[in-house]
Structures are given as structure tokens and as C-alpha cells.
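Narrative of activities, Objective 1.

The group set out to show that a structural description can be obtained from nothing but a protein's sequence at a throughput compatible with the screening campaign. Below is one input-output pair from the validation batch, recorded exactly as produced.
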Amino acid sequence: MAKAKTKSVVLANNDLIYLWWSLPKKIDNCLGFSIHRIVDNVEEPTGLYATVGFNKEEDSRKSPQTTDEWPIQSFNWKDLYAPHNKEIKYKIYPMIGTWDNLEKDEINSIITESTKRTQEYGEAKVIFNRGILSTQAFAKSGKKGKTVTKAEAKEFITNPSSIWRKRLGGQMLFNVNSFFKKASENGGKYYAALYELTDDVLIKELTKNKGTEIILSNANKSETKIVNGKEKTITINDGTNETTRMNLHSNKKIKVYDRMLGSHIGHNKFVIYVDNEGTPQSILTGSTNWTPTGLCGQTNNMIIINSEKIATQYKDYWDQMKLEYERDEKQGADFREWCASNSTTNKMNKNANLTLWFSPNTVQKSKPKNPATPIDMQAVFDLIEKAKESVLYLVFNPGSPSIIDKIKEVASKRPEGKPLFVRGAVSDAKIAKSVTTNIVSSDILEKPATYYFDRVTGVAAIPGPFSYFEGELLKLGFSTIHDKLLVIDPFSDDCVVITGSHNLGYAASYKNDENMLIIKKDKAIAQAYATHVLDIVNHFKWRYKLQDKILKAGAKTLAQKEVVLKKEWNDLSESDEWMDYYFDETGFINRDRFIF
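Output recorded for this entry:
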């Protein structure tokens, strides 16, 4: 038998390795694929973990098994357990036979290119947490037979010794600790600008070095109370940081500057390391608020850049905020003018470059009815206009106008036969009760006129136990997705990553203290961020489909929901019919074809 022509791609970041593969046609009697990890050219003897098996009435094996026993009936998979900083490949075996008697199809097996699960990208460390709570692993951490509760989850993410805090926070906790060792080992001090600050471990790290200076914004808190028999949301000024602020002011080792901006916010999440000579050396920034939820209860990213030039630009921005404090000003005209006129571009990692933007950078203090495009958002829009193949994004609550509006506009103008591949998710904090995350998805196979920007889907958790699944916890706070990032053409030499604290909408540029990083021409970094986006978006797709079916059926009780769930995908197919979804008369129709 001749080997079929196949393709494969592996993408990685610090959190996981993501695999995609394709076949030119169906393989008869193929019940899925087994994936074997190859570490430093040595193939592991068993497949990766698998948690969903065949019909439980026939298959008595308990979860988990490996993909040798329970093959993957898909053309993509995630490896969450690959060792860090090793050369990793995968051998993907079609599994042929019957569910209880499977054999590897060596002839049609696929060996991928090598990759590394790493956070190291030259001058930068790129770090993602694992903050999704609606997973089967986390669901099963609750009391037997029950979904993990909110109270249990809060205990897990706040307890420093909790294994779940370490798992959900991922490498962020280690990297923050390492960042704050710089001064204790080499001398120097830290300058921070933070929005929310409540995590006890991070506060300890931030304050352990003498001389640390912190600009701490107001972080308002809302409470829902019953007034005259009706629910009413009340805003508590600085309710989030109040206790932390009081404790910090009593600490004589450090200095704290209160940046109280009312309805505006100091939304930054950065810390600068300055050496003994007073020269800025490193910057830690990203989307992560310094709270247990920010670290462990929502998706977030962090970047640490070791560059004197880039760190100096952040220190200049920090100095401007400090000057406002001394003048008792709040995002005044001078500060706004400085932000608008001090964008810089610096080389990074030899061939790449990084452009910095700071906010607020508009003349007006609030977004008017017909707002002019802020200068930083215009730079972002120009890059979206130039997208060749794909746009990927994760954002919290960008408001409008934002990158969402621009992506829709650009995608709708694409010529016939040259569609723009779009994957993204938006977690809307305004919908506090349901915390809906809208997933916007379009396929390379679709005509440009059929981009489903109005067919939004919501983030969802599995509502209750069925088949191989336990009920899941959706969220703890307002947000499941807290990233603020945009990736354009990650496989192109002209790739772009936009990250930082900026929500990627007009409102942030008008009202907030923000920092935005635009990284161009660094494929490794772009693909690391792309891996994160695709991981998050794909996580929610099937869960939303289940929720949508439940809502349409009007199922409210768990028993009613179970009736609906039993009609949906429960387990592995015992024939090769599962492959029909991926093939038509033209061949393979993988929805992620842009990757190839």
C-alpha cells in the first residue's frame, strides 16, 4: 500500500503544544488517531492521554486511557503535558480495526516537524496562564459526584499551597518570582503601575525589596443589593484595592502613589526593573491583573522584555504619571499630549521591531458620540487593513468602535475566492449575569459574504454529568477571557502581535491609562500568541453548541438538560463514519485549513 500524502503543523507556547494534520482522503476502518510524543528523538511507548472512550455500555474501561485505546476522532489535538525546552515531535498513527481490537497503520502514520514548549523568545519571555475553569480536569476536583463549587474554586486559587493555583496560574507565578529576584540578587529597585492588586503572594513579591515605588489606581467594585424589592447595582469607589492600599501605605519600605481617576481607570499592569545605576533594564506587562482571579480564574497573558531601550520608555511613561500625582492632576492635557507624541519603535530579537503606545492619548477626556479615531487605534486599524490571510484575537470588553468593527469591515470587503480567516472571542463584562463570551468564527472555505459576525456564540460550561463528562464551573468573576490581543498573519514574514493592557477599542484610548505593544516580524512570538487564541476559541465551541441545544429545547432542570445531552455527541464512533465531517468529493475540508 502506498503512503497517502499528508500534512501536519505543530504550534507551541509555554502552556501547550497544538497539533493539526490532514489526509488526502478517508482511510477505511479508521476509528481515529493515536499520538505518540517523541522527545529528543525518542518515541514514547504509549500514546497521549485520552478521556473519552467508546459506548460505555460496551466499553468498561475507565478514564483516562491513552490514544492507543481511545483514539482521537479529529484532525487536531493539544498536548498539555509535554516537557519544557525539549525538542518535541509527534508520530500520528491511524488506528484501524474495531473498537476493541485496534492496530496502528504504520504506512499512513505522520511524523510532525519538531517544536519546543517554551517561554523563551530571545529578549522576551511570553507567558500564558491556564485560567479556564470550565475544564473536565478542574470539574473533577470538586466533591465526588458534584461540580467544583465557587467556594471551592476560590479556596483553590487563593491558597498558595494549592496544586490548582499552580496549575491554573501556570508559569506566571514562577516568572513573577524570578522577576523580583533581580533586585535582591543584583541590586536595583522596581517601579510599578497597577490597576487591581489583591493577591497576597504577588503583594509579598512586590514589596519585599526596599525602595519599590507603586502607582496604584482606583479599582472600583460593584455590589448587587435589593432596594425596594428590586436588584440595584451599587458602585463602591476603590472597593477592590481599599484594603491593599491601606496596608501598603503603612509599609515604610516602599512608596505608594494613589492614582484616583473616578470613572476613568489606571488600567496598566506593568512593573519596571531598574538597576543599581538607575538604568531601566526589564519590563513585565500584559493583560494580567494582580489578583487570584487574574492569575488563575480567567485567561491572561504576560510578557517580560529585557531591553534597556524599551524599559526606559516605560519608565518615562511612569514618570509622567508620577508627575501628575505631584501636580494633583488626573489625565490632564500635558499628560495626554505626552502620550500622543511619545510612541517609539525599537528593534527586538534582531529582525523584529516593537512599537509602544501609551494612553490616554486624545484631547477629549471621554469618547464623544462621533469620536475621532485615536492615534494608537488608527495604527492598529492600518495593520488590520493589511492582513493577508488571517486575523486572530481575544479581547475582554473593547466597546465600540473597536477592532471587532474593523475586522468585520475588512473581511466583508475581501474579493471572491480570497476570504480572510477569522477566529476570535470577546468576553463582555457588561453582561454580568451570564458573562457571555461571543465567539466570532469564519472559515477559509466560506465566501466573503458569509462571515458570521452576527451569529455570536456564548462561552459555556458543561451543565451537568453525562457520558464521560462531569458538570463544569463557568466562571468566578465577570470575565472568562481577559486577554487583550490581536494576531495578524502568524505564518507570514509580516506577522503582527498586538498585546498589553489596552482593550483594543476607542474607550481605552480616551479614558484609561494603558500600554500597548505592537510586535512585528517575529514569527515565533506570533505563533505563540496564535496558539493561545486557537486554544481558547476551540475550547468553547463544542460547549456552546451543547448550551445552545439546551436553550432551544427549553430545558431548565438538570434532568431536562440530561435528556438533551443524551442526543448529542457522547462518545467515540465505532465506525469510520466520523471522518465524513472532514471530507467531501474534493478531499479534506478541515476548517483550520489556513494553517497549512
